[in-house]
Amino acid sequence: MQNVGNSRRREQVPRHGLSMLSLYNEAPLVEVSLEQFEEFAIDRLHVLKAVENYRLRSVQMKDREGRLEKTLNKHMPLRSAAPRRTGQAEDDAAKDVLSHFFLRMAFCQTEELRRWFLTQESTLFRYRLDKLTREEKIQFMKQNGLSYEEATMKEIEARQSKLKVVRDANDPKVRGKPLPAYFKVPFTEALDLVATRRVYIEAVIRF
Q: Which of 17, 122, 131, 195 has a CA that sits 20 to 30 A from residue 140's CA?
């Protein structure tokens, strides 16, 4: 058996609310068999390899997304916690969290491995976050103490053309669709999004 996590408390990786997404702030302390350890780690590695391929610009976005979705559904689904699927959703969330920490241990040996792991995990998190509904995103932020102010409709309409340019450049398939919910985040709190040009910046506030 393998023990994973903080020995100060024993946690069964519960997730509550609409979203099963996690920030992986703390490793849970649970007992898992060696077979589960291997299975979860291999499944997540399949997913991260698919994420790496998803980031390749040489393949059309539609094809990349389809392949990634297929791999996620097979190896690492995250279901919404609908009433009739709560048990399965919690099992999915437990596997997601545990497998993250299994591979975090495996990829901590060198700077190159750490960089590769962080790059794929960050991309996977952003991809999953983008798939959440407005209500799920708000619930996720509340669960994790992220008290960012949501932009009002008036603020979004005043910047509509600029926001669409940023959004459409990152995801051409949504061109022509209504703008989603936006949150105002201080410049220094998500520099990776600035680096990849996924935000609109105005007076050191990002949308």
A: 195
